[in-house]
Amino acid sequence: MAPLIALTGATGFIGRHLLRELPARGFRVRALLRRPAELPPETTGAVIGDIARPQNMTAALEGVDAVVHSAALTPGLTGTPADDYRAMNTEATVALARAAQRAGAKRFVFLSSIRAQAGPTAPGVLTEDGTAAPESEYGRSKLAAEQGLAGLDLDWVALRPALVYGPGCRGNIAELARLARTAWPLPLGSLAAPRSLLAVGNLAAAVATVLAAPAPLRRALVVADREALSVAEMIAAMRRGLGRPAGLVPVPAVLLRLALQASGRTETFRRLAEPLVVDASALVRLGWTPAVTTGEGLARLVREMN
């Protein structure tokens, strides 16, 4: 019989994709939901519960072979207190892992974040072997969860994905895609710093890879598409997907920085103009094959947007 996976965060952007992708890769999936929701027909079942109170998770985890924990409090809303990140991303994660251990699960897959490894930019190439140096409360809460998992007698793996994109994504990549869909020339042609992204389908393949790995893992693994593109290259790939020229104007980066600083968006400039390159070679050595290139994935994303 196919392995049974308990999945949290099944109604989120990543979770919805995992609900469809994991059954196609030979896994049965039981969704752990906070409230009733419509699920795809390939879902094996669903249990209503609250991972913040994992003492109620005994029935939900009965008979599962592994847990994939994708539910999280993300930094999409500004002003989230550090205590909230710690309660949801750290304490609830470790408590759920303890419940999985009691239930006899063989592996706990935690969807962490590249922000547990570094800030929004990094001068060198990031691997999981480097010293983790998160710069935000969100990143620190994810790293603390990984450290809590390391203290349990349970086989675990923390995937640290770069920024994930795909149909239904929100945030910076969705905003970039909306800009790419306009007919306007964009003053981003001088932005040459490479930045790693991760197609949601490639992330699903990474989850399947670590679920199937035969040996104990007990480690963090960074995840990103093979190639890193500059913001200018991202826009060009999106517009190619629409059959249009790139339409990029090479405005000097210093002028962009001044304009964004004047509007209080210094952090936005860092994300546009400074590098963040992730090397996922360790995951590739486990057998992960990212089938989607970043250029192809971005072109598909912009074509499928409403």
TrEMBL record:
Gene3D superfamilies named among the record's database cross-references: NAD(P)-binding Rossmann-like Domain (3.40.50.720)
InterPro entries the UniProt entry points to: Epimerase_deHydtase (IPR001509), Lipid_A_modif_metabolic_enz (IPR050177), NAD(P)-bd_dom_sf (IPR036291)
Pfam families per record: Epimerase
NAD-dependent epimerase/dehydratase domain segment(s): 5-215
UniProt superkingdom: Bacteria
UniProt protein name: NAD-dependent dehydratase
